[in-house]
Write a structure and sequence with these properties.
- With 157 residues, this protein is mainly beta.
- It has 3 helices and 9 strands.
- The radius of gyration is 21 Å and the shape is elongated.
Length: 157
């Protein structure tokens, strides 16, 4: 009888500790990064002349998603340039990919169109870019920011 009661108490105690998994960022992908938040970018922080290869920052960053993958995560961002025809998208990490105070910042850069272009609809202009980040690099990251010319999007753990 005592053995049965002891076994039930141990089972109950071990089950109550299972609720702690919700708080674990490693085991629970639903709380790994929250929803993205939009913020305005100061003109000095988003200076498009900083990019050495001639590409410019996308006008608006419209979406940011971080998808957990084996061994790391895929950071995917979408943005709207002013007209159609922009190309050669890339997320370029600031500070050589080293987080500053837990914040990893990327610049969403695009190349100018060749020839004349038209404005058309936002759906026809939307560009998407992605990059992979290993678990080793993610270990020190608490927030990821993607910069555009007029706004930025961020996600934090």
């Amino acid at each position: 009888m005592r053995l049965t009661i002891l076994a039930l108490m141990l089972a109950a105690l071990s089950l109550t500790s299972c609720g702690r998994i919700r708080e674990s960022r490693i085991l629970n992908p639903f709380n790994w990064f929250g929803r993205s938040q939009e913020s305005q970018v100061a003109a000095a922080a988003a200076d498009p002349n900083v990019i050495a290869d001639g590409r410019l920052l996308v006008a608006d960053v419209t979406e940011l998603e971080i998808a957990r993958q084996p061994g790391g995560a895929i950071i995917r961002a979408s943005g709207l340039p002013p007209t159609q025809g922009w190309w050669d998208t890339e997320l370029i990490a600031d500070n050589d990919g080293v987080p500053v105070d837990g914040v990893l910042t990327y610049r969403f850069v695009i190349a100018k169109p060749i020839g004349q272009t038209r404005v058309s609809t936002p759906q026809s202009r939307e560009l998407t870019v992605a990059t992979y980040l290993s678990d080793i690099k993610l270990a020190e990251v608490r927030k990821i920011v993607v910069l555009g010319a007029q706004n930025s999007r961020s996600m934090r753990r």
